[in-house]
Amino acid sequence: MLCPAVHEIMFFLFGLLFLGHNMSDKNVTTVLIWLWPFGKTYDPSLCSSLFNIDGCFITADRKHYIKSDGVVIHHRDISPDLSNLPPFKQPSFQKWIWMNFESPSHLSQLPGIENLFNLTLNYRQDADIEVPYGSIVAAEGEEDFVPPSKNKLICWIIHAYGQAFGKYTSDQDYFPTIASYDITEKLYNPLSVGTVPVVLGPSRKNYENFISRDSFIHVDDFSSPKELADYLLLLDKNEEMYLRYFEWRQHFKVKKAYFWAEHTCLACDYLRRHKEYKAFNSLDKWYWGG
């Protein structure tokens, strides 16, 4: 019985002989999904139909490694000992793409990956391939948006719902759950379904660079948690005040990211437009600050 390492070598040689890079269509950009994000699969053939990005071949079949222009590797799925990273020599034309959408405080640093990647795929504006969680775009015409009827006041989707509380929320229940609340601590998803986000962390000015100043509540606007709680209770009783948080919907709407297909399609689009060599040798400093 062959050991796993020998299997990997034979697998690599088969790919080299059968698929060699010179046999590939030069008009097609191949992107390999090395690790499915959180183990969740998705249809990788949507680049043209959903995002108007043509000439892409997105696959998770590792036999295509040797001819892949880019290899997308999801940080949260990398083993601490890096044993599940590609064991093969990286072709000179190929770019490894670090994909991650967690905040630095919720993400473990992994020794050994500081100088491993060529490109970053992230929500940050200074990422090589920027994919925000959402954005506010102009509506096609003036809209009379009416938020859905509410039967609950506040939804903290991370804690009140989720595995930590024994209340796992399925994908199909996620948006109806958020929409049934007046207020939540998420951002683009609540804005899209007619719920007011309560935010913290970055300053109000930072948030206003991306969303309307009258579409959200920032905790820094209040001197104490009690003052914030009193204001939320007031909103619950004053419909006129509450509806002011949706006036922006007359002229704008929310564009949400398509997880995860959009990310790999945008990676392919980047690779099609950028053939130059690129290395990223400061991942720890860039993302964790040290």
TrEMBL record:
Oligomeric form and interacting partners: Homodimer.
Keyword Transmembrane found: yes
InterPro entries (alphabetical): Glyco_tran_10_C, Glyco_tran_10_N, Glyco_trans_10, GT10-like_C_sf
Pfam families assigned to the protein according to its UniProt record, in alphabetical order: Glyco_tran_10_N, Glyco_transf_10
Chemical reaction(s) catalysed: alpha-D-galactosyl-(1->3)-beta-D-galactosyl-(1->4)-N-acetyl-beta-D-glucosaminyl-(1->3)-beta-D-galactosyl-(1->4)-beta-D-glucosyl-(1<->1')-ceramide + GDP-beta-L-fucose = a neolactoside IV(3)-alpha-Gal,III(3)-alpha-Fuc-nLc4Cer + GDP + H(+); alpha-N-glycoloylneuraminosyl-(2->3)-beta-D-galactosyl-(1->4)-N-acetyl-beta-D-glucosaminyl-(1->3)-beta-D-galactosyl-(1->4)-N-acetyl-beta-D-glucosaminyl-(1->3)-beta-D-galactosyl-(1->4)-beta-D-glucosyl-(1<->1')-ceramide + GDP-beta-L-fucose = alpha-N-glycoloylneuraminosyl-(2->3)-beta-D-galactosyl-(1->4)-N-acetyl-beta-D-glucosaminyl-(1->3)-beta-D-galactosyl-(1->4)-[alpha-L-fucosyl-(1->3)]-N-acetyl-beta-D-glucosaminyl-(1->3)-beta-D-galactosyl-(1->4)-beta-D-glucosyl-(1<->1')-ceramide + GDP + H(+); a beta-D-galactosyl-(1->4)-N-acetyl-beta-D-glucosaminyl derivative + GDP-beta-L-fucose = a beta-D-galactosyl-(1->4)-[alpha-L-fucosyl-(1->3)]-N-acetyl-beta-D-glucosaminyl derivative + GDP + H(+); an alpha-Neu5Ac-(2->3)-beta-D-Gal-(1->4)-beta-D-GlcNAc-(1->3)-beta-D-Gal-(1->4)-beta-D-GlcNAc derivative + GDP-beta-L-fucose = an alpha-Neu5Ac-(2->3)-beta-D-Gal-(1->4)-beta-D-GlcNAc-(1->3)-beta-D-Gal-(1->4)-[alpha-L-Fuc-(1->3)]-beta-D-GlcNAc derivative + GDP + H(+)
Start and end residues of each Fucosyltransferase N-terminal domain: 27-134
Keyword Metal-binding: no
One Gene Ontology cellular component: Golgi cisterna membrane
Record EC number: 2.4.1.-
Subcellular location, principal: Golgi
Name listed for the protein in its UniProt record: Fucosyltransferase
GO biological process: lipid metabolic process
